[in-house]
Amino acid sequence: MSPGATMQRVYIELKARVLAGTFPPGSRLEPAQLATSLGASATPVRDALHRLAGERLIESWHQEGFRQPILAEADLCDLYSWAAMLLALALKDRPSHQAAGGLFELEERPNYGEATESLFRTIAMSADNQELRGALINAIERSQILRRAEVRVDQASRGLLAAMEEDYRFGRWTGLRSKITSFHRRRVRQAGRIVAELRPRTDPLR
């Protein structure tokens, strides 16, 4: 396998682990250790870690290595607010009521986290502005780790998502924009509890 192909494979596999929440918050990501499990040398692993750090999916410091981010309540509030603004922009110029024909199909996903990502990513991919698409997809990916905590904290999560999905399928853009804004404001209010759910059970409360 060529070096470029190896780098891409390692990046995809490592990114999937990060998005799946494989590494607890604050855990160090050592290239040498990861290389063994990824079946690669440390160099492509290190390159992939730098790329993920550039996407803000992990954190890095000069000469300090890499780690899974430790998210604080304020971090979640900022991320939720940012995602809400980007989604609103992606839906801004659509008519108040128009069938969704011609847009990307919304896949049926029984899992709350996967379904939420599918809806928001579908909205992102149908946006005309390439920069907006890129920023929104990045925000969606950085939020993936939060979804499992959201559904544990908020029993209404699946119902809220179903209502947004229905508005999308019927092209009810005004209603969808309103529901997306309310969804993220709700998450901001719940940010402290979501952070607590993300923290490993052995960690002391701080």
TrEMBL record:
Residues 4-71 form the HTH gntR-type domain. SMART domains: HTH_GNTR. It comes from the Bacteria. GO terms for molecular function: DNA binding; DNA-binding transcription factor activity. Pfam families: GntR (PF00392). SUPFAM superfamilies: Winged helix' DNA-binding domain. Keywords: DNA-binding, Transcription, Transcription regulation. InterPro entries: Tscrpt_reg_HTH_GntR, WH-like_DNA-bd_sf, WH_DNA-bd_sf. This is Transcriptional regulator, GntR family. The lineage of its organism: Bacteria, Pseudomonadati, Pseudomonadota, Alphaproteobacteria, Sphingomonadales.
